[in-house]
Amino acid sequence: MGLAIEHGNVIVTLMMVHLLASLLAAEVRVLRGAIVALIFQSATLAAIFAAFGLLWTQPWLYGWAGVAVITKVVLIPLLLWMHVRQFPSREVRPIIGFRPSVALVVIFIVAFYRFIYTYIYFIAPTSAALVEPAKSSLAMAFTVFLLGLYMCMAKRDVVKIVIGIVVLENGIHLSLVTLAPGLPETTIMGITSNIIIAAWLLLYLAGRIYQTLGTTDTLMLSELKR
After folding, report:
1. What's the CA gap between 7 and 14, in Å, rounded?
2. Do 176 and 53 form a contact (C-beta atoms < 8 A)?
3. What is the DSSP letter of 93?
4. Mean pLDDT across the stretch 194-214?
5. How many Å apart are CA 95 and CA 203, to the nearest integer?
6. Distance between CA atoms of 73 and 78, rounded to whole angstroms?
7. What angle do CA 94, 98, 104 make, to 5 degrees?
8. Which of 38, 75, 141, 183 is buried deepest, with most CB atoms within 10 A?
9. pLDDT tens digits, residue range 79-103?
10. Cα 80–Cα 82–Cα 85 angle in degrees, nearest 5
11. How far is the C-alpha of 101 from the C-alpha of 154, rounded, in Å?
């Protein structure tokens, strides 16, 4: 029991670090800095998978953690890093300014996490999901998902939008591993839903748009109609 509590505490700590890295990925204006934050965010996600595998004795979660390292810690950041070399070092000015955005995101994260955590019984499908660390994990998954959605809506730079999509997907994966850790099919879903091809395609299109318009501002895409 003591060992299980210790592992649970480690998972909760990893989730807090995961959330902090998500916030940095969203708000760091220098693109390479945002990519580093995304790497850290994805690495903590893989560590959470492995910790859950150890806590719940679900060995297939180790495989999911390994795939997360290969795809989200290595391949996707490598694609981002290769493409940002041809773009300006700082992201296009977002719709919401830096200070208002940080304040809004912090308030949102705290309020939304507490709301989901308090009323988790409305969405938890099993009694196991109401027990720590699954309860915190599920609340964190929904919070990270909506943070990624916010990035996709509030950011104008295509690179930050790709990062937002990855953050959003990481939230989905965290919810999957929390809700159905005992199903090998859940691992298969998580592995096959990686967005490497989508990220590559978006970055490729961003490169072509930058060559044409000289910007990665998605609001300027209307210029392509002319």
Report:
1. 11
2. no
3. P
4. 79
5. 21
6. 8
7. 100
8. 38
9. 999 988 888 889 988 888 888 999 9
10. 100
11. 9
How is residue 54 written in tokens? 């150890």
The amino acid occupying position 32 is R
Supply 117's token pair: 């955590």
The pLDDT of residue 80 is 93
C-alpha of 48 from chain center = 13
Global pTM value: 0.89
Q: Which amino acid is at 44?
A: T
- Here the tokens at position 103 are 């304040």
Strand partners, 217: 157
The pLDDT of residue 149 is above 90: yes
68's CB contacts (< 8 A; 6+ apart) are: 42, 45, 46, 49, 173
How far apart CA 153 and CA 38 sit, in angstroms, is 18
DSSP letter, residue 88:
-
- Helix axis angle for 184-192 and 60-68, nearest 10°, is 10
CB atoms near residue 61 (< 10 Å)? 25
Q: Decide: residue 42, CB within 10 A, 0-12 exposed, 13-18 middle, 19+ buried.
A: buried
Judged against a pLDDT cut of 90, whether residue 183 lies above it is answered with no
